[in-house]
Amino acid sequence: MSTNDWKDISVRKKEEQLSRIPPSYHLPLTPTDDVTNYLSEVRRCGLLTEQEISITEVYDATALAAAIRKRELRVVDVTQAFCKRAAIAHQFTNCLTEILFEEALDRARFLDAHLDSGKTPLGPLHGVPVSLKDTFKIKGYDASIGLAARCFQPADENSVLVDLLLKAGAVLYCKTNVPQTLVALDSHNNIFGRTINPLHTALTAGGSSGGEGALLAMRGSVLGVGTDVGGSIRIPSMCHGLYGLKPSCQRIPYAGQEEGQKPAASKVSISASAGPIARSMRDIDLFFTAISKQKPWEHDPDVIPSPWTPLSTPTPDRTTKKTLTIGVVRTDGITTPHPPISNLLTEVATTLSHSNKLTLVELNLAPLLSQCQPLVNALLSIEGANHAFDLLESFNEPLSPWLQPRLRRKPPGNLDKARELQARRTQLQKQFLDVWKTGSSSSSSSSSSGGVNEIDALICPVAPHPVPPIDTWNSVNYTAAFNLLDLPAGVLPVRTFSTRDLRGEMESSGVPVGSWDKYNRSLWTNFNRKVYMDSPLCIQVVAPRLQEEKLVHIMSVVDSILHRDAPSGEFDRGKNKTSSAKL
């Protein structure tokens, strides 16, 4: 390095990034400030052919894989389309970090030749372009996670999941932007800058997989992989109206990630999970099918053996007439949901209650869930952020805006402190086991008379507010609680925020529970609510630990009920319904 100043590193990194975008992919005009939704701008820029528009807009990942297997589409054409669209998306939203277009096209030619020779596909993802969060290591490329101290240090080996995606036939073509330190909720760092939400430029793109969310929303990706230690898959999924799933931490390989921490630091904190972000539930299923076929437990010691049966394969659990019991959880007891969030949950519960596939029960889990946020914060800060500050200060980097009032160096916790926190966590996990059995625990109660025999899944908010403006997302207990408890949790888009959602007030007599609740109320009371217009409204679905297959099945059932016109399709933000084209 010629200098230890982050500004110089940022300039060099952006120059490298620009050099990897072909001149023919450059936008003819810079996006103007008066445009607040970039989705329609992609077509207007004139860079995409009709075929490229069709490939990136009509197909989901499952349909692409099928078309490639049938030789209706060539991998090189699919890869070219997504490379070009990713470059366009980046110029609008600043969503990319590492760009691998040349290598991706070489890979595409190899995959086409493989099929042309009469060989069977490498795996379920043969020829499907897959984007990755910047934390994943790809040999020969940086995993800088937006830190100057990690730039120009290309990885000498792949993350485990990267190797498994390649074995499954995927084409890896780009990595996506993240927030500084990976624990912020708005994707900004000093090296690459801020990722913009293409649905509404005044609203946050979320974090820490914010680049993935923006890229998928712009259809610059058909299937992305993020990571989640407090909501980092689910928050960007909500911000962009996408399907996302955080598995239990022992389900999908996480080994070989760049986290900006010392090795194995998460073992004494909260372990992160890797998981998919997609545009349909069947693509979520495709991801788990593809990875499970590679027997990931033979490649990552943290992954337990867990075969996967695709949704398309009948199983007794799916074909029997057993009614699924879904618990409705309305609040975490820390932050009171805004009226549109409460109303959305009522709307969803009412719709689901009319189905003979489901039985819904109201659950009060606030006494248990309210204990999670303080414990999450304590565990995530056990190291005192000292290593992160060491990396930042080595290149004179300032903290990002969202982190400035929130992150400080602290003395690291000692062994007794770590042990005590983990003991409290284990106790909460034990209490939650009773929730699945009876709908209540020793510290919570069910509002259904006499409780219930068994809860198959929960539905609850993703956040207590709609998608908020940039740098204003504050509380994460609705997502982070399920990282603490190590429960698989996914996000389903329902519809967009409309005029009817502007109505309603927080309880006038309600006193804020604490600082998180007080701040959350400020995003609704005496606030310009119109900023939320047309933003996605989503719900979260949660299942018992390591029951990802059950979660995907239940999410698919719920999704099909909420969007009856095309059960296997994808959420359409413009029409509040699903699109059946090619699905």
UniProtKB/TrEMBL annotation:
Substrate binds at residues 182, 208, 229-232. One of its GO terms (molecular function) is amidase activity. Residues 305-316 have a biased composition (Low complexity). SUPFAM superfamilies: Amidase signature (AS) enzymes. The keyword Hydrolase applies. Residues 77-551 form the Amidase domain. Its EC number is 3.5.1.4. It holds the Pfam family Amidase. Residues 299-319 are annotated as: Disordered. The active site is at residues 133, 208, 232. It catalyses: a monocarboxylic acid amide + H2O = a monocarboxylate + NH4(+). Keywords: Hydrolase. PROSITE patterns: AMIDASES. Belongs to the amidase family. PANTHER family: AMIDASE, PUTATIVE (AFU_ORTHOLOGUE AFUA_1G14530)-RELATED, AMIDASE-RELATED-RELATED. This is amidase. It comes from Periconia macrospinosa.
